[in-house]
Amino acid sequence: MYKIYLNITLQLLAATLTLPQAPFVDFLGLAIAIVSAILAIYLSINAAWLVFGSALIGWGAYLLGYTG
Question: pLDDT at position 23, please?
Fold first, then answer.
């Protein structure tokens, strides 16, 4: 089961890294993606919680003035 998740995660990571012209690929977004992938694979956290946590991190970064 973990091999399927790992395969999908690696495909999404490759797609993210091969699109340098994408406007929302920055350090914070990449860090959120990597941490989310680790949490989803090893701890089987529901995707809704990952989206909610990522939104909170993005909102907090916005309030703190992170410009990427």
Answer: 66
Please give the Cα distance from 36 to 12 (Å, whole number). 12
Q: Which amino acid is at 6?
A: L
Residues 6+ positions from 50 with CB-CB distance below 8 Å: 36, 39, 40
Average pLDDT across each block of 10 residues of the chain; the chain has 68 residues. List them in order: 77 75 75 89 88 92 85
C-alpha dist (Å) from residue 13 to 27, 30, 33, 42: 13, 9, 8, 17
Retrieve residue 51's tokens.
Answer: 């989206």
pTM: 0.62
